[in-house]
Task: structure prediction
Amino acid sequence: MGYIYHSSILKTSNILLLCLLWGDLFLTLSLEWSLNEQYQFGYLVPWIGAYLIFLRWQDRPSPEVARFNKLTTLLLFIALVSLFPTKIILESNPDWRLMHWTQSMIVFGATLAILYQWGGAPWLKHFSLPFLILLFSVPWPTQFEQPLIQGLMRMVAAITVDTFNLLGIYALQKGNVIMLTNGLVGVEEACSGVRSFQSTLMLGYFLGELFRFNINWRVSLLGFGVVASIVLNIIRTLTLTFATHMIGPKFMEHWHDPVGYFVSLFAFVLLLFLSFFVKKNKRSRKQVDHNDQLFFSINWLNKITVYPALILLIGSAPFVEAWYQLQEPARQDRAIATIDWTQAASDIIFEDIPGRIRSVLRYSEGKKARWNIGQREHWITYYFNWEEGNISSFSDVHRPEVCLPAAGYTEIIHADDFNWSRNGLDLEINTYILYDNNSPIFVFFSVWNDLSGETVPSARSKWDRLDNAMKAKRLSGRRSLEIIVSGLEYEEEARMKVLAFLDRSVNVDAQ
Result:
């Protein structure tokens, strides 16, 4: 009885080790899933992977004769120890995709070592494929993703413009923007579904594993998914652009998301139809006799391996926190600035911020407000908040000197800056002046951290990222406020009105 009880605890500890490895990885990746629309499918991947692993368990092969393999045990401990520096770097750089992939490879490698210890080569071969689908939830490296996505967007825009011109409809391509006679169509909105080919790849792999296709059919299914995704999104862009031409820009606002959902659903239906069509070529599942003797003959990691491994894995979190706590200076009191929009204006209008902007800025909370004062004076305000753990020293807010030139404004004057203070918070307000048809537009901008007086660590290279992690530099949180005022003639008048807006609308809570 004691042997069976101890064996049960040992098996539970082995399974717990595997669940903690992947659970910790998914917790790290959940930040990207929540902030980036194109990776929201990541929330489904753990459940899909678990289902495939369950199916594999039903026809698992007999494990090899139990033995203790020193090499795989050594590799397992090297992987677990490697998690310590990886998580230290991620604490300071939670958005660094290179480290996401580093942790993913460590977890996947540790999983392979565990599978080999459990059942030898037969189990390694049998279970590695369903575990591989879990890596589809990891964001692609930016250096690879952005050129690919931008290239696809330009291609879709070019095809759309050429098609419209052949039909005798005026259309002009300007980067990722399609210019029509009645407005502009931003391809990053109209064909943002091009990015869905990442989720389509995952679905193609899932169906290939679900039906146990051979390698040729699996690769063909992935290729068909990519082609189908691109073709369907070309059709989607043509449809949205043509409707915008006929009805007006408001059509895009109402039908952009529904058409995108339809395209994604239709791509899945096509893949599913193709899978059923070639189902006759799938590998047959080998029937096995599942009995207790087979289950208890599994070569589980023994107690001198699994318990130290669990200690290493569980201990990585307090170790990382201790790394930063021991090196960080005593943190100052927080000065949390929030905006009371009820005091900003009486006729304020809140507008939605496109999802693509959040995927770039990665903010936790964002507000865009618009209101008018009289007939000529117009105000637009952007307020963003990045919570602690959601921003790294490499990230930067969308500063006016960056976004305004991208919007087509080339003559920008950086005027005199000024300060605004309240309750321990001292904001430096940057002032910019630009002109639209000889009429001045005043832009006021400020960015600050939640801790009063905290120096913002900056990073512009991978080495800076590593240096900040080694020196235990992480951000407490960040906020930014951008105010755009048009309809006024003089800078001093605009500045006084902005100060009045700050006095009546910004609340500072010292904690």
